[in-house]
Amino acid sequence: MTKLLTAAWNSGDPKQVACFFAPGKGIINRGEEQFGEKAMVAIEAGFMASFPDLNLTRDFFRLASDHGVFDWAIEGHQAETGNPVDSTRRLQATRRSLQ
Asked: Which residue among 6, 10, 37, 42 has the highest number of C-beta atoms inside a 10 angstrom radius?
């Protein structure tokens, strides 16, 4: 699953990323929680426009009971400034939110 999510991010197609969000689940991105596929596509499209050469690398994924941890890193450049982005993140989620 995390390999597919990584490939979706690297595709540059926000619809491919949005399909990984469970129906009825939301996301918070600097504001109020957003719900639904249309909102997810808009959030991902904005992020991809801000970082057009984004490359996500899957570091590892661990699953224990009903929880998973997905460690990833992103590289790329901010569209307006050209400044490089180098970030490592850890996403912790329940198995239900990854289905």
From this structure: 6
Strand intervals (E) in the chain: 26-27, 34-35, 55-64, 67-77, 84-94
What's the half-sphere exposure (Cβ side, CA atoms, 13 Å) at 29?
Answer: 13
What is the SS3 assignment for 82? coil
Rounded to the nearest 10 degrees, how much is the dihedral formed by the CA atoms of 82, 87, 93, 99? 50
| Residue spans of beta strands (DSSP E) within 11-83 | 26-27, 34-35, 55-64, 67-77
Q: Where are the domains of the chain?
A: 2-98
Q: Tell me: the pLDDT tens digits for 3-47?
A: 888 899 899 999 998 887 777 776 666 677 777 788 888 888 988
d(CA 78, CA 26): 26
This prediction has a pTM of 0.69
- Which among 76, 93, 87, 71 has a CA at the least distance from the CA of 12? 76
